[in-house]
Design brief:
The complex is a heterodimer of chains A (167) and B (218).
Chain A (H helix, E strand, L loop, with lengths): L2 H4 L1 H9 L5 H13 L1 H17 L6 H9 L19 H16 L7 H5 L3 H15 L16 H6 L13
Chain B lengths: L9 E3 L13 E3 L7 H9 L3 H19 L6 H22 L10 H19 L21 H19 L3 H12 L4 H8 L3 H19 L6
Antiparallel strand pairs in B: 1-2
The chains are: A mainly alpha (167), B mainly alpha (218).
């Protein structure tokens, strides 16, 4: 199977938009002339490419967007401290507070609980939650249920966005 | 951030005594516009105009990526806003550790967020109910009631078919078809090779053809 066979849909998309350089366009034509399978498949793929295109962004859409004045959104508060209590420790602290409130602990445990102020604890809980919920949509395991062996074979990606931060 | 001058591009406004103001403002000092990353850093340092510049720069592309999943221009605008806010919320945590030279990182992040915001919006079945024909933002040529219903029906089928793609296929498809990005840029956004992006796209279109059947060939 040639490169053209494996990328036919992409090559047709580029040709449709006039992005294919002359040399590659000629190579595609030559391939289609010699490959009956791709020649047949190309008709269906081109029809799909035409069917899935949306009409250009309309003036009404842009007007609504501009009227929102999105650029005036949000004010950034003081930057948080860079260290954060891990979620496990926060959960443990919350559990300790609950235990103390439900069943009074021996007097010797009280000072330990009293050291953690409610405000500080709440702030850390929020911070930990914030950390875990940044991109729930990107870590949705259910989304991967449609992945196939074909996709595994194609997974040649690197470490991903910002994967080199620690490098 | 305060007191730093970003090399060759922008500077933070200073008081006469040479000390930076409380909320530094980006000012252009050269012919080149500041990078997205410089704007994000400025935004995080309290420059509200920097956020506006980011929105101005990218809102049209973000709109193109989310509008397939919206029922109205208002809903599209909601999704655009949600995309920016999510991307910047994450940037507030990650960008302080980034170097200013890492250009393109914010845009790539923003676009990936937008693709996922649109898809997640559509995943909620309640938003896919049949809406009043009058509320649809369809071209004038499709103004006949029957035509408009057919168009909406086709859109619905395409959205359902897109939902059956893998995440990577959907990302490549959205950036290429809705965002109209060249494959080289699609590859940069997704941090994959251009050939890989093309192969994913090919499989996405083939799978759409299988799902849409004769609908795609009318």
């Amino acid at each position: 199977m040639s490169v053209e066979c494996q990328m036919l849909g992409a090559l047709l998309s580029e040709r449709r938009r006039g992005e294919l350089p002359l040399e590659q366009a000629q190579a595609l034509e030559a391939h289609l002339a010699g490959c009956a399978r791709c020649r047949e498949e190309a008709l269906g793929l081109e029809a799909v490419l035409a069917a899935v295109e949306l009409p250009p962004v309309g003036a009404a859409e842009l007007e609504v967007l501009r009227s929102r004045r999105l650029g005036e959104a949000p004010r950034v508060g003081p930057r948080r401290a860079r260290w954060q209590v891990p979620a496990v420790l926060v959960a443990a602290a919350a559990a300790a507070v609950l235990t103390v409130s439900v069943r009074p602990a021996p007097r010797r445990h009280a000072p330990v609980v009293e050291r953690a102020s409610a405000g500080a604890l709440a702030a850390e809980v929020l911070a930990a939650g914030d950390t875990q919920e940044l991109f729930p949509e990107m870590s949705d395991a259910s989304d991967e249920t449609v992945d196939t062996v074909e996709d595994d074979a194609l997974s040649l990606e690197g470490p991903g966005l910002f994967g080199n931060l620690d490098g | 951030m305060q007191g730093r001058v970003l090399p060759g591009v922008l500077a933070l406004s200073m008081t006469r005594s040479g000390r930076p103001r409380q909320a530094p403002q980006l000012t252009l000092v050269g012919p080149r516009a500041p990078s997205d990353e410089a704007l994000v850093h400025a935004h995080l340092a309290g420059d509200r105009a920097a956020f506006g510049a980011l929105v101005q720069r990218h809102q049209r592309l973000v709109l193109a990526l989310v509008r397939r999943y919206a029922r109205s221009p208002e809903e599209s605008a909601d999704l655009v806003q949600q995309s920016f806010l999510r991307a910047l919320a994450a940037a507030a945590r990650v960008f302080p550790r980034m170097r200013l030279g890492e250009e393109g990182a914010f845009r790539a992040w923003l676009l990936r967020v937008a693709v996922n915001v649109g898809k997640n919006h559509a995943r909620d079945g309640r938003r896919w109910r049949l809406e009043p024909v009058e509320s649809m933002d369809l071209p004038a040529a499709e103004s006949g009631i029957t035509d408009r219903l057919e168009v909406e029906q086709r859109r619905r089928m395409v959205r359902a078919a897109l939902d059956a793609l893998t995440r990577r296929q959907r990302e490549v498809f959205a950036l290429r078809v809705d965002g109209e990005l060249p494959f080289a840029e699609v590859a940069r956004v997704l941090d994959i090779t251009e050939n890989n992006a093309k192969v994913h796209f090919h499989h996405a279109v083939r799978r759409l053809r299988e799902r849409l059947g004769g609908e795609g060939e009318r």
